[in-house]
Amino acid sequence: MNSKDKKQPAGLGKDNQSPIGIFDSGIGGLTVVKRLAATLPNENIVYFGDTARVPYGSKSNSTVVEYSVQNTKLLLSKYVKAIIVACNTASSIAIPTLKKEFNIPIIGMIEPGAKMALQKTRNKKIGVIGTRATTGNLAYSSEIKRIDDTANVIEKPCPLFVPLAEEGWTDHNATHEIAEEYLKELRRDGIDTLVLGCTHYPILTNVIQKIIGKNVNLIDSGVASAELIKEELQKLDLLTNSNTTGLQEFYVSDIQVKFKEVAELFLGKEIEHVHKVDLEELSLE
Amino acid sequence: MNSKDKKQPAGLGKDNQSPIGIFDSGIGGLTVVKRLAATLPNENIVYFGDTARVPYGSKSNSTVVEYSVQNTKLLLSKYVKAIIVACNTASSIAIPTLKKEFNIPIIGMIEPGAKMALQKTRNKKIGVIGTRATTGNLAYSSEIKRIDDTANVIEKPCPLFVPLAEEGWTDHNATHEIAEEYLKELRRDGIDTLVLGCTHYPILTNVIQKIIGKNVNLIDSGVASAELIKEELQKLDLLTNSNTTGLQEFYVSDIQVKFKEVAELFLGKEIEHVHKVDLEELSLE
Lengths: 285, 285
Known about the structure:
The structure is a homodimer.
Chain A: E1 10-13, E2 20-24, H1 30-39, E3 45-49, H2 61-76, E4 82-85, H3 88-101, E5 106-107, H4 110-120, E6 125-130, H5 132-137, H6 139-147, E7 152-157, H7 161-167, H8 173-188, E8 193-196, H9 205-212, E9 217-220, H10 221-235, E10 248-252, H11 259-267, E11 274-276, H12 279-284
Parallel strand pairs in A: 2-3, 2-4, 3-10, 4-5, 6-7, 6-8, 8-9, 10-11
């Protein structure tokens, strides 16, 4: 079976030993790999980070859909049995197209994060933090209100959190000052639940929890999506029956300076088996 | 004369009333527009910011050259008489190709910044701060040492300065803390001259000067390139003889949330005459 064989229907050739695929616009999705491996430790995982074309947040909707379809095809060529779209931008834009075009369980960040936030909140005051692109689209607000229109959602962009996470400044004074600046309004508004609407943000959980208050539930969409994919695979009888720790394989479209250091911070362990994918190969998939 | 007419040799159809063109991967280059307008207030200026494809620092050399050629063609279709490449990445990679392909004065950031640093330094200990991509390439070091191999150059990436500048946090406590963290080594090393190797950094001049010490010369490559383009146009007798304030026109490939606010912070005044260029149109230029 050839990865270039476009007639291969997605969904065929897969069994419960097949890996779960995850793609992201960059390396942020490695925090989702970490959550998925914690929830389903025996599953094999294939990750693709589109590091050459990051960020997706500044690109047009049609470009984000096109890239997401390419990324999905790349993962399918690795025989994945399900896909998690770890990029919040791609999740909010491309999921309907992906579900229509590919016959495989596909889960984004928005729906699981929104559902978990509604399960946890008591006062129905929910905060959402993310990049300017994600919060500007109000993707979480729309999804939360679609499920429960009595919920009160406040979104707040926190653009400095991504570079702070990439610098690894998880406990720097500056990080505390910046978190205070970004989160003070949400604290004043009395939210009891806060969605981390960007895959980088779990790296800063300690600071965020400290500033927003220890009684506020933090929602990690990576945890939520791992729970949901577990349910879906269970229903389809596609969970692995292996008892050994799953293998992980990583593909990226570019390897930047400091890639390994940042990737390992996000993944929470040493990163091995990293392959570079040519952009040209990607657009021909 | 048609902008699509590829046989039109660059350099023809231009006179001393023609505008000066500036392109950048995004909006950072607006700080260069500000400097250029201060140096040559009567010149008309056309700016192109490739905001849909920013950042260039994470892209391959061939892609950066390809985009730079496209951006140059776009500016030539506006009949510019000279071009400033305000993007440090494009400056360090694409200038030789641009100079070869286009018969018009073309000036980047690296050469003027390096020359001015060498003019100002007394102890020949020069610091360079920039994005991880720029400092990783050691573009300024190479150029400074090419001119004077006895100079001692220390480069330091300051990734948080770009989002801090875009947030407009020019005097926030967090900015001081971050500048302290980034600049303490350079201060300890006893540099007497510091190159701001990223077009965003002039926004943070006050904090940077305070932390690095008031006796250290800050080199703004935008100022240096404006001086150099003035000299070149003088030689070619292409400076305007107008006595009225020059007109400014702005083109971008995408208009983001908060674009106007950030653009005005960088430009130092209200931004008008902003046009959106289609990426497709750009690649066909």
